[in-house]
Amino acid sequence: MSDPVHLELLGQGREAWNAWRAAHPGIAPFLRSARLEGRDLAGYDLHDAYLRRAHLDGARLDGCRLREANLSGASLQRASLVEAEMAGVNLRAARLRGANLRAADLKSAILVDTDLRDADLSRAQVYGISAWEVRLDGARQSELVVTRPDQPRITVDDLEVAQFIYVLLNHRKLRDVFDTTTERGVLILGRFQDGGLDTLRAVASSLRGMGYVPILFDFDRPRQRTYTETVLTLAGLSSFAVADLSGPSVGKELEAIVKAVMLPVVPIIERSRSAASMTKDLAMHDHFLYPPVEFESTEDLVAQIPARVIAPARAFLERHGQKLRALL
Length: 328
Description:
By secondary structure, this protein is an alpha/beta fold. The chain has helices at residues 4-10, 14-23, 159-170, 174-184, 196-209, 227-236, 251-260, 278-282, 298-327; strands at 110-112, 130-132, 144-145, 155-156, 185-189, 213-216, 240-244, 265-270, 293-295. It has two domains: 1-170; 176-327, 3-Layer(aba) Sandwich (Rossmann fold). β7, α7 and β8 form a beta-alpha-beta unit. The N and C termini lie far apart (68 Å).
């Protein structure tokens, strides 16, 4: 619950509140779960305030100082935060649906599982944000500023793109990271149940020991986005893929990769099992390196990786590269 003294001070008006904040800079207002719906808090100094799970729906917070405030789990639906200073604010799991954040200072803000549907983020400063699983359906995101005030102004029209552009601008070795991933990354697909995970981990360990970057995708985890979308993204960051056909898990996603991405895919299968009927259809694509590599045990599979998995994939990549170079 909120500190009743802090709530009383808040109700005395902006001038009294800000004067109290100036006189007591070491006190962080404790306003947890405060019921502040529809309140006019424009211009209030709420920096460092603890507003976790506060109720601010429809509140007016224009020009408010919310730097380093903790608003995780708070509800600010349809609140107005025009030109609010929110650098470093924690908005984890906060609900800001329909909120007005035009020109708000969101530098270094934490936006994790934040609901910004139908919000207006136009011209907001988003340098250094941490944006993960943010809901942005219907949000207005024009002219988001991704650079610091002392740098040339660069704007984009998408919050998640803004985070990516920031990383590109500020991490000199990022290109090396991409090169390493696309040249050495290996997407590993297969079943994670009934011992399948042990097989995939063994493949990953073997590849890692040979300088590759294995990427395992767990098909048994809950879906937060379509599996196919995620797998295609990972495929685009890989040099080749290994697909275990010993179980039923990978059929749809494997088909999507083979049809959408020119990525060499090396199928593997336990000798005692049969591949799905669609596997032969995929063999019509040159980059699906049919027939599957059969193995009796994990040890048998690991022993075959250099000659039966890596070598064919690298050979395909070299042939494909030669074709592309010939076309230039």
